[in-house]
Amino acid sequence: MRVLRVALDVPVAKLFDYRVDDAIPAAPGDRVVVPFGARERVGVVVEIGDDSAVANARLKQVTRLLDGAPRLSADWLEQMRFLSTYYQRPLGETVAGALPPRLRSLKPLPKKRKAAGNSGDGAPTYVAGPAPNAAQAQAIRRIGAALGGFRTFLLHGITGSGKTEVYLRLMAEVVAHGQQALALVPEIGLTPQLEARFRQAFPGARIAVLHSALEDTPRTQAWLDAARGDAQIVLGTRLAVLTPLPRLGLVVVDEEHDPSFKQQEGLRYSGRDAAILRGKLAGCPVVLGTATPSLETWHNCRAGRYEQLSLTERAVPGARLPSVRTVDLRAESADHGLAKSVIEAIRSRLARGEQSLVFINRRGYAPVLSCEACGWAAGCTRCSARLVLHAADRCLRCHHCGAQETIPRACPTCGNVDLRPHGRGTQRIEETLGALFPDARVLRIDRDSARRRGELARALESVGRGEGDILVGTQLLAKGHDFPNLTLVCVLNADSALLSTDYRSAERLFATLAQVGGRSGRREQPGDVLVQTRYPGHPMFQALIRHDYAGFAEAQLAEREGAGFPPFVHEAALRAEAPKLAASMAFLNAAARLVPVPEGVQVYDPVAHAITRRAGYERAQLIVQSRSRPALQAFLAEWAAALPAAAPRGVRWHLDVDPIEFD
User: Fold this and answer.
1) In terms of residue numbers, what domain contains 79?
2) Strand pairing report for 355-359 and 486-491
3) Got the DSSP string for 467-517?
4) What is the pLDDT of residues 283-296, one digit of tens each?
5) For residue 236, which of 53, 181, 295, 539 sits 20 to 30 Å off, Cα-Cα?
6) DSSP code of 327?
7) pLDDT digits (tens, 9 = 90+) for 97-141
């Protein structure tokens, strides 16, 4: 008797055994339909055995084998097992989460389409870009020499140094040998421009694009193209790293430092770390590209686990890094959020026909609507957070849970009709700039202005063509974009991140400011960056002025080591939420005593989140640390097995291994 051990998308860590007839030639990696309860489900065969711990009479029969998709490979299954074990999630959930929804349903798969470009059997033509400079050429040679074996490289290149050109030339070598290349970007908004660049460089190639915003059929078709080996290049967000690639020869992670590579629900995996695992299993190089490496990556380079390659010059001849200076708000007042020197700098760019970018990482009109008579402020009824005023939509919106309310005509507490907005978001800055420069074309780009499919790509294209004089934007404009005529970046409200209790805040602020500042002066015209701050002497700002990432990183690592923070310790967070905070805290206190804590592992007392109430639930967390990753993993495995039975009704919880968010 053959017994299939099948992974199903159910909240149980175990595999399920099923009998299978010889007429069904199922093997590990196949998708099968099996009975489960009163319905049928799609599962993935993980193992095959001759017997089962379940009595023969109780074993159910596999219904049928599904076709239309290639068998999932042994190394793909190994990747799923590792992610399931490391991140403490059921294997069935891990496997199901890695597949497009269509492949885990009973719906028929799309028919195999005729190749629009070359299939995997032929090498596409590569249209080379500008000749690489000396540093680019050295990086290409060094990584190229490692093709065919696993090694992790940090491509540390300043903004505008031509990291993408390095990626393209390495991909050309990979696809010329009949292999596949995988390129990951942190955000969906970066995929259209990179896809266009890839298609320009490889006009005959089959390129599969994968991200969560795709509709069901295109996403399934792209996944099938990649898994069959028809796609020579796969471009996508973190979910693309979970796609089977039978001939993988190169993995690229662009902007590797970006927090968006960390999944924040379900299987809370790091796309960057999963990419390194993927390269190891496939036996191919992994390239981590960024101007501002994460401190974990920098630390791994120092320890010799990664090889660092540096690009210290901009790729365009004559282009230089922008000059950075602070605008001291203690000495210079800000009128409507903009200091006089910032306004004059924008005016001078307008006179020269150059573009300016005003960066404020806060969308909406104003973060607070309040009554000056009684002190009332508009708050979210479901979260311990303020509602943000969105003037264009005439509403108040919570940026944490999405709740929306109409703007009240009068204060609900005292009846005062003179309600005032406080603070500034992108909409209010756009309004201010429009009043200051009535003849200028002011263009706002944030998640409110780019809600519909394709709006962001069209807006970015128009900016590249020079159709906007002053840009107002958030993180959407901070990285990966090349605006030839942009010569000035003005940063507002930078100080808020310095006041955060998150130990990663300085690292993230440096990365954000370096990235957004790098949009300036990418051609022959010199660029400038002005940062409004009340703390101009802060070491982070001083390192930014010197363009000294290495010095900043070393100082941060010294602080982390002294404080006992990652990467010098390994962490996990147990988080709980319930309608009342007392229930969340009671569960966490009980969980801390649930299993013996071994020597070398520290379980800290639970604390409420900084934003305690979100979407109607009150949240708390406790942190577990150890200097030994194996010791922490052994404890987490025992703990995760005991937690489901200990959680009372009404409390939702999850484990987050290597957490990056603590709000």
Assistant:
1) 2-98
2) parallel
3) --SEEEESGGGSSS---TTEEEEEE-STHHHHT-S-TTHHHHHHHHHHHHH
4) 999 999 999 999 99
5) 295
6) E
7) 899 999 999 999 988 766 555 554 567 889 988 899 999 999 999
